[in-house]
Amino acid sequence: MAVKSSTKTKAKPKPKKDKPIEEPVWTYRGYQMKASEFVTAMVHFFRAEVQRANVWRQRLDTTTNWAVVVTGATLSIAFSQSEVHHSIILLNTLLILWFLFIEARRYRYYELWSYRVRLMETDFYAAMLVPPFHPSPEWAENLAENLLTPSFPISMWEAFGRRLRRNYYWIFLILLAAWVAKIWLFPTAPKDMDKFLLRAAVGPVTGEIMIGLGIAFYIFLAVFAIATINMTRATGEILPRFGDEVAPASPSMEGRHTGLRALLVPRKRRRQLLALIITDKAEAVSDRILTDLKRGVTALEGKGMYTGKNRSILMCALTITEAHNLKTAVAKEDPKAVVIVSPAQEILGGGFAPLEEK
User: Fold this and answer.
1) Regarding the domain delimited by 272-343, which CATH topology (the fold level of the hierarchy) does it fall under?
2) Nearest to residue 312, comparing CAs of 298, 301, 296?
3) Domain range list for the chain
4) pTM of the predicted model, to two decimals?
């Protein structure tokens, strides 16, 4: 009887493919943040900024409600009793003007948070939906600068004009019509224009002066509303990418406006710096700056006054958000180097504003 013997061979395990190592996008004190963790942090930051913007948007609505309620109450009192003087409408007009100033100031705070939200929407999230799926090169720097040195994206002129056109001009027109109606109808219609002007007087101020002041006030409001109509830097409105083709913090906006708009629109550009690096390892430090910061470096030769030792002086233009990275890059190659960072009035070319304006 033959016995068959069989041998079982174990299947060779398939070689596991090495997973690509995810490079950290942020390193601090030994901690490394991966790309997924970075996106998660940005999501939470985006939600926080949206909440901030919503709070200030609600405060805007609150101020408008104050103006509407006060105007309604004033008109009810003025027209319910014939003996009430028409100056109560004038006082209400001044109060509405004060509400408009408060709302314009709140609108600037709203724009501060809304600018960050809009920046992440257009240059981070929108960029993730369109190939090659990478954000705009400047969005992170614009956002970081706004976090380090917060500033209002729009001027008080634009905020005042925008809120005037959207809500308050109609309230002022209602008050104007109510003021004229109060003078003309109560207690009875005047027989001639002289009687009307006599009724328009307020204390020692004659009716002619009061009518003239009223006309001048409403002409001023109309001119102001028209003069600020082309200011479209408010990111909270339904506007394409900040209203201009570039972000408000971009240095290319410098000198673009002329005339009245140049007077009303604040000149906004990213803060620029000039760094001088005194080092014995000029080539290594230069290569490190070119690699880490992608900034050009110019080398000058210097000589110590007392030591007589020749040392290299590197000159590099950068923005405020790159200052910390510059110090880190220099410290890696030459911890004994001397770094001098000073503000620059204007930097043209080389990744900054174009040298020749179109």
Assistant:
1) Alpha-Beta Plaits (3.30.70)
2) 301
3) 28-242, 272-343
4) 0.63
